[in-house]
Task: inverse folding
């Protein structure tokens, strides 16, 4: 057989094998994230049922404590899933993670709504901080978002459960988030909404964020 033909066949075989292995690894990772988020979706139904139960039984101290604690535990779990999704996004080359990213955003949205409702019904002592960012940032946004994310992470580390930090993407065509954008006139990223009242656009210093909450 011609040496050039042999070389071409070997090259094609190695290339095809590499593609096959890459697909297998990528799909395995994708399935792992999908399974994890499916589990979190079940937890979402559980936390929603708890919220509905709260509407039924009233606002006793015991139930309020349990409901707030469960919502925090739910948030901790979806936070871990978000980190796993970020890792998957950084290495995934062949799979589309858009559906999982939207599902994760909706889980965060539900956590926020639960936190708002429980704060009102239970007179809970915490602030809600919704952080709006561009999932696909334009020129310059990536840097400003990274800075604001670090500031909010530092604030969360200082305040702990005295603030409910909720990251939400502005540009993924999610109806509920789009409705929030319209209601609060959120037109740019990054933007931060504190207690559904105070909208802070652009990068905010840690000192500014500290003055906006009561932790």
Result:
């Amino acid at each position: 057989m011609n040496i050039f033909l042999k070389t071409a066949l070997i090259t094609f075989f190695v290339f095809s094998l590499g593609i096959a292995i890459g697909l297998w690894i990528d799909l395995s990772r994708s399935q792992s994230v999908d399974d994890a988020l499916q589990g979190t979706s079940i937890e979402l139904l559980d936390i929603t049922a708890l919220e509905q139960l709260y509407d039924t039984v009233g606002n006793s101290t015991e139930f309020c404590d349990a409901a707030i604690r469960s919502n925090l535990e739910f948030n901790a779990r979806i936070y871990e899933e978000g980190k796993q999704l970020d890792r998957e996004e950084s290495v995934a080359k062949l799979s589309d993670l858009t559906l999982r990213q939207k599902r994760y955003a909706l889980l965060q949205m539900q956590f926020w709504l639960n936190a708002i409702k429980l704060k009102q019904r239970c007179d809970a002592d915490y602030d809600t901080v919704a952080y709006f960012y561009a999932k696909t940032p334009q020129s310059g946004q990536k840097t400003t978002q990274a800075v604001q994310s670090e500031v909010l992470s530092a604030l969360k580390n200082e305040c702990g459960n005295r603030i409910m930090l909720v990251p939400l993407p502005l540009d993924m065509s999610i109806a509920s988030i789009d409705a929030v954008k319209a209601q609060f006139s959120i037109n740019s990223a990054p933007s931060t909404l504190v207690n559904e009242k105070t909208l802070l656009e652009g990068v905010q210093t840690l000192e500014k964020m500290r003055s906006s909450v009561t932790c």
